[in-house]
Amino acid sequence: MFSFLPAPVIGVLCSIFLFINTVVLCSVIYIPTIIKILIPLKPVQVLCTKLIIMISELWISINSLWMTLFHKTKWDVKGLEGLDHHGWYLVTSNHQSWADIFSMQHIFNRRIPFLKFFIKKELIWVPFIGVAWWAMDFPFMKRYSKEFLKKHPEMRGKDVETTRKACEKFRYTPVSIINFAEGTRFSEQKKASQKSPYENLLKPKAGGTALVLDAMGDCISTLLDITIVYPDGAPGFWDFISGNMPRVTIRIEKLEIPQELRNQDHNDDEAQRYRIKQWVDGLWENKDRVITRFNSGS
Question: Could you count the other beta carbons within 10 Å of the beta carbon of residue 143?
């Protein structure tokens, strides 16, 4: 409707709408959050969590509204059939742009449970959003480097233990846990630096997937494998917010997670780590072929 406006004007207006939407609804989230803290009864906490998720989904709906009003993006999305708003999903995707999260929130809102991702423990101090993430039960975690674990072997397995504790809350409310296996946004420089064997992707890291399957493999049995392609080039954040994202192609593949990969401790099991790595590598090989076909126009 307002996509005729100059891109800088659209960028400023959408930035203002995003800021106001975030500040206002994060403030509203504080109400059930305080109740959740003051009344440590499981039924009350579950109810508060559901209210917080409803507010979060409203946040996405408002973002989708200004995206629809100001952007003229053409969405080519396939694979949304048969999804369950009350299910439990592990979601994995290639990662190219800040727009990836907004794009997935836009297409999945109220089709699957609210997308959650693992967050570094330090990010809880981010103004407004940090407390909101905590209230929404985003799993905060602290990862230890190999060097640290060599010096402190008693900490081995603590990350899995922390993840299991964080994920325990998800047993009471449906959840979609998203993992960007590449660990960072794609660029040709990063691809060359790590000598990636893929034409369009960075090497995937299986550790995040293994953590989720270890901690929640008994209740998460379905993977949503997402492939995102920007035919006109991956937009930066300002490009996205300004409406300079002409087309987005998204393909969703719903897969059963092999039983032998679920609910097994991979920390001290080299064979299990290898099985998960092989499975993730297979997903990435297929994803790379899909992106190549899109890029070639076939």
Answer: 15
